[in-house]
Specification:
370 residues; mainly alpha; 15 helices; flat
Length: 370
């Protein structure tokens, strides 16, 4: 059953009236839901947005008056702003105003990045642009690790991704391996703060690096590598789901990421080397297409069986994209394409009948036990 915490709270009153849940059970469930809340809420969101705006305001103000200031005054403003931001963050943390303390840390991170750029401009330093982003990411990482600040660690992850993308953009071939140790430091910080949303950021950033690395490695070969990694991750989440969930309930999320990576890789294998959809060779792609559709249907069945809504929608989207891309690309001749879709349609319909019967069998079994 898919249900948000708000919906669950509303439903508990009805369940209590029906006698399905006792008053003590309702209180225990509500206490458990309250204990899982992050505490960030609207105040934290607004404070973080305010910190971002304050950082841009400070950068804009300094840039507007930059030419009228002496070098000493410029440095005093930059370093004074940094010291003031982190000093304010320390004071707020001491007063147990953690939400606003993290916002002050984020302001300091923004000012650190502005300082790098403005000092480079002031002393006419010409270098490699990704190096400046790397230095900014290091500053954000240090702030996040020392102050245990989740927003700073999130900013560091974003900067690490930007640095890696910029570095890969400067090379025609080759993987940017420098991403991994930086990502590992960010992962260590997120593990230290036990930030649940940070796990999603880690997964998204690592997935984006994998996709970029696979494409950089070479179209079809990189697609196969990415597909194998994605399928492996999905299988790991399925086979070791209970073990994973005893540490953190993330097996369903791992399945979703594995599905996305696998399909991106298979899409590259099928369409990119042969000309994206319209162009390229007329070589038939029926075998990788059958494998792709089979994996999608298998993932769809598992997502339905485990009630994994995100994986279910990913499978629906992947199936739709795959069918439309095959229609545009054509599996061999037009007649071959027609036969391919007909046979695939029959198989999917047959699977739907099996799923329907399994569902009815399970419902009748539960009903007979009650």
């Amino acid at each position: 059953m898919f249900m948000s915490s708000g919906r669950l709270r509303a439903e508990m009153a009805r369940w209590q009236e029906q006698g399905w849940v006792t008053s003590e059970g309702v209180r225990s469930i509500q206490a458990d839901l309250d204990s899982r809340r992050s505490g960030f809420g609207l105040a934290g969101t607004l404070a973080t947005l305010g910190a971002v705006l304050m950082g841009f305001a400070a950068m804009s103000f300094v840039a507007a008056n930059w030419q009228d200031m002496s070098k000493l005054l410029r440095l005093l403003i930059l370093f004074g702003g940094l010291a003031g931001s982190y000093g304010l963050a320390y004071a707020l943390f001491q007063r147990k105003l953690d939400v606003f303390g993290h916002a002050a840390v984020l302001t300091g991170v923004a000012l650190f990045g502005a300082s790098i750029m403005l000092i480079a401009q002031m002393y006419h330093m010409e270098g490699n642009p990704p190096d400046a982003v790397w230095l900014w990411a290091i500053g954000a990482l240090v702030a996040g690790l020392l102050l245990k600040s989740n927003p700073a660690l999130g900013a560091a992850l974003i900067l690490i991704c930007i640095w890696s993308w910029m570095s890969m953009g400067q090379r025609l071939f080759g993987i940017h391996w420098g991403f991994l140790p930086m990502w590992g430091l960010a992962a260590a910080g997120i593990a230290m703060t036990r930030w649940r949303r940070g796990l999603d950021l880690l997964a998204m950033s690592f997935s984006s690096w994998l996709v970029m690395a696979a494409l950089q490695y070479g179209n079809e070969r990189g697609g196969y590598i990415l597909a194998v990694i994605g399928v492996g991750l999905a299988l790991f989440s399925i086979l070791q789901g209970d073990v994973i969930d005893r540490w953190r309930r993330i097996s369903g999320t791992l399945l979703s990421y594995g599905m996305v990576l696998a399909y991106i890789g298979l899409f590259v294998v099928q369409f990119v080397p042969r000309g994206l959809l319209y162009g390229g060779s007329s070589q038939a792609i029926w075998l990788p297409a059958i494998v792709t559709l089979g994996l999608i249907v298998g993932a769809l069945w598992w997502a339905w069986r485990t009630e994994n809504r995100s994986a279910l929608w990913i499978a629906y989207v992947a199936f739709s994209v795959e069918i439309f891309a095959l229609y545009l690309r054509k599996v061999g001749s037009l007649m071959g394409t027609s036969l391919f879709f007909f046979i695939t349609g029959l198989l999917v319909i047959a699977l739907s009948v099996v799923a329907y019967r399994l569902h009815n069998t399970r419902v009748s079994t539960v009903g007979g036990q009650s």
